Amino acid sequence: MDHRYCVIMCGGVGTRFWPFSRQDRPKQFLDFFGTGRSLLQMTVDRIRPLVDPENIILVTNRDYYDIIREQLPEVKQSNILLEPARRNTAPCVCWAAKHIYALDPEAVIATLPSDHLVIKEEEFRKAIDEGFNFVDEGNRLLTLGIKPSAPQTGYGYIQQGKPENGFPGIFKVKAFVEKPNPEMAQLFVDSGEFFWNAGIFLWKAHSVLEAFDKYAPEIAQTLDAPDGVYASPREPEFINRHFPDCVNISIDYAIMEKAANVFVKTVEFGWSDLGAWKALYDTSPHTKEGNVTQNCRVLANDCHGSIFAAEGDKIIVAAGLQDYIVADTKKALLIYPMKDEQMIRNIVNEVKNRFGEGFV
Amino acid sequence: MDHRYCVIMCGGVGTRFWPFSRQDRPKQFLDFFGTGRSLLQMTVDRIRPLVDPENIILVTNRDYYDIIREQLPEVKQSNILLEPARRNTAPCVCWAAKHIYALDPEAVIATLPSDHLVIKEEEFRKAIDEGFNFVDEGNRLLTLGIKPSAPQTGYGYIQQGKPENGFPGIFKVKAFVEKPNPEMAQLFVDSGEFFWNAGIFLWKAHSVLEAFDKYAPEIAQTLDAPDGVYASPREPEFINRHFPDCVNISIDYAIMEKAANVFVKTVEFGWSDLGAWKALYDTSPHTKEGNVTQNCRVLANDCHGSIFAAEGDKIIVAAGLQDYIVADTKKALLIYPMKDEQMIRNIVNEVKNRFGEGFV
Fold first, then answer.
1. 3-class secondary structure, B257
2. Chain A residue numbers touching B355 (CB-CB < 8 A)
3. B2 touching A, CB under 8 A?
4. A306, A333, A353, best to mutate vs chain B, most B CBs in 10 Å
5. Contact B270, B119 (CB under 8 A)
6. Structural Rg of chain A based on CA atoms
7. Which of B315, B347, B359 has its CB closest to that of A332?
8. In Å, what is the CA distance from B40 to each residue of A4, B28, B95?
9. pTM over 0.90, yes/no
10. Which of A178, A306, B58, B89 could form a disulfide with A324 if both were Cys (CB 3.0 to 4.6 A apart)?
11. The pLDDT of residue B1
């Protein structure tokens, strides 16, 4: 029996790529690069050579059940865990661990976001494979740290501590650091000690549940079910009743920043969280004028540093745009300075208020 | 019998409003203001109270026959004159006059463009009505001159000469002047003597045919058919054979600038030739930030002097645009500085070459 499991978290609601991402179709479900596969599908494709398809578990919001069935018809219905409420990553991770522990008390779990970009898939799988082996040998919580390619201020950072004997590239974690300011980010990168927190975690089911008992007991207790509930037909009813009572907290805050047995494996596999347009711009191939074209044909005159994205077989003609986002869907068109992209969240609210839910 | 006729010229191919105007649907066929009526339909609606519907003649390119039948199902098939080739306005005017003269040798004709804006329709009809009366009394070629509201450089101007006794507001024409430079345009407006050439003409069929014989005999002769051909079932065959042999020349060059019996009636009825985006911008209501919205809902932040136009129920969110054209259709999106709109013609060619006919 294969004890390796994978949990893919795909319940996030993303409006930062509005109008492409919408409430009913957040980022992970989009065919971002026009390859014919959504980010979620690519995430599953990427891990499948390493984990028995039977052991791939999706945790999502129940609103997305239909779209997941549509995009991943091969995933068994019982492998889709439907959250009745949005409670950030800690309750999600705890539930998935309890579900898997009930199936296999010796399980080791890789927990992955569903909406990130990985360029070098072989190296990604190699890292996950080594990570599985590392956490299988002891009570260890492992996170992946991405070697930073630039002083990004949009990511959290992990500071490496002392190396773990016998495991090249694996270190004790010295500190988790929130998104830094630009000067700090530059210092981090120059030091060589800091790595981007990619939100990719490996552990034994038993180890992470022990950590929940110790560091987030309120979640562990809220989700404490009588024997025989998890991984049984009674699980959904139990979850629907109790999951909403969990505190809303991230796994980083709840566990990783508190636990003593936390390690980082430093990796480099062409990663981006595709957090917003700028991140997509940075990771995409540029024309010689420094523009990026997503899924559309563009005739650009005196445009620089801009990203053009459209739905369908559409052409864009533009002139004189510097550092702009041009994002066009059937329902909405966004033309916005990239430097102001943090405003998109507010815009989406304003669009909702003025024009209705149908546009967001 | 009513001797009043109207000729509506609607064969023009306009790409200056690309992507809205396209080869297969030029400007006159567009519902420009979202009122449910195209510019052509509005032109017909506007003249109908003044001219028997039986006497309204459309001259167009044969490519547009279907769209005209669709937009104006009430117009008799025999009232639609289909040009087999594009030869500018002089051959078109000559043919229409010969056609109408064959129907009614006493006909007076108002010749109108099909793609202009008229705000004050009552005053327009009053001017046409007075114009009919004026040309009915003698061998006179009358053009309407619009009192300029600004020193536009995009229009040709007509300089008024001495007033015609007994016809207030009607003057001999002193000169036709091509599009002026800005300084000249300002002088024109300040003088009070210059009026925009709106391309609206009135004359007796007999008068204009006499003018063709005298000033453009090559066109008159090319279109000279045996008696009984015009306004008969043999007319289309004759036209298909001979019309393409006509020289390509405008009525202004061929006749108006040469004839001695040319008059201008000065008028003011809220007119624009809607020649391009800037003209549309100028004639449309502005938000307090100086933006214009056509057929769409816009959330604009720090945008000024811009025009936003979209097809369908679409919203546009934009920021930081100064004096831009944003024109969005299902097939193409244009984001272009208004000051460079004369480039749109070149763009359309480039789009055609790079992306194919389907986009223009």
1. coil
2. 297, 315
3. no
4. A333
5. yes
6. 21
7. B315
8. 70, 5, 20
9. no
10. A306
11. 57
Element (H, E) at A128: helix A121-136
**Per-residue pLDDT, B197:** 96
Burial class (CB in 10 A: 0-12, 13-18, 19+), B192: exposed
Contact A317 B330 (CB under 8 A): no
Strand partners, B158: B176, B195
Chain A hits for B334, CB-CB cut-off 8 Å, are 316-318
Chain B partners within 8 Å of A315 (Cβ): 331-333, 351, 355, 359
Average pLDDT for chain B: 94
Q: β-strand A297-301 against A315-319: which pairing, if any?
A: parallel
C-alpha B156/C-alpha B144 separation (Å) is 12
- The Cα–Cα gap between A25 and A21 comes to 6
pLDDT average, residue stretch A42-54: 97
- Peptide bond preceding B180 in cis form (omega within 30 of 0): no
Site of tokens 């117009």: B75
Q: Which two tokens stand for residue B211?
A: 């003018």
In whole angstroms, give the CA distance from residue B194 to residue B228.
Answer: 43
Q: Are B12 and B60 in contact (CB under 8 A)?
A: no
CB A59 within 8 A of CB A92: yes
Both structure tokens of B119: 């705000």
Angle at which helix A39-47 crosses helix A121-136, to 10 degrees, equals 60
Are the C-beta atoms of residues B166 and B287 closer than 8 Å to each other? no
pLDDT of A144 over the 90 cut: yes
Bridge partners, A176 (sequence order): A158
